[in-house]
Amino acid sequence: MPKEMSKDRKTKEKNPRMGRVGGEALLEGVMMRCGERIAISVRAEDGSINTKESTYVSLRKRHKICNIPIIRGCISYIESMKLSFSSLDTSTELLGLDEELEESKAEKWLRNKFGKGLMDVVMVIGVILGLALGIGLFALLPTYLANVIKNAAGMEHGWFVSLTAGVVRIVLFVLYMWLVSLMSDIRRTFEYHGAEHKSIACYESGMELTPENAKTCTRFHPRCGTSFIFVILILSILIYSVVPSTWAWYFQSLCKLALLPLVMGISYEYLMYAGKHDNLLTKICSAPGLWMQRITTREPDLEELAVAITSLKLSMPDEFPDFDPMTYSLKKDADTKGDANERDDGGLSPEGGNA
Question: Mapped to the 3 state alphabet, what secondary structure does the chain carry?
Answer without folding.
Answer: CCHHHHHHHHHHHCCCCCCCEEEEEECCEEEEEECCEEEEEEECCCCCEEEEEEECCCHHHHCHHHHCCCHHHHHHHHHHHHHHHHHHHHHHHHHCHHHHCCCCHHHHHHHHHHCCCHHHHHHHHHHHHHHHHHHHHHHHHHHHHHHHHHHHHCCCCHHHHHHHHHHHHHHHHHHHHHHHCCCHHHHHHHHHHHHHHHHHHHHHHCCCCCHHHHHCCCCCCCCCHHHHHHHHHHHHHHHHHHCCCCCCHHHHHHHHHHHHHHHHHHHHHHHHHHHHCCCHHHHHHHHHHHHHHHHHCCCCCHHHHHHHHHHHHHCCCCCCCCCCCCCCCCCCCCCCCCCCCCCCCCCCCCCCCCC
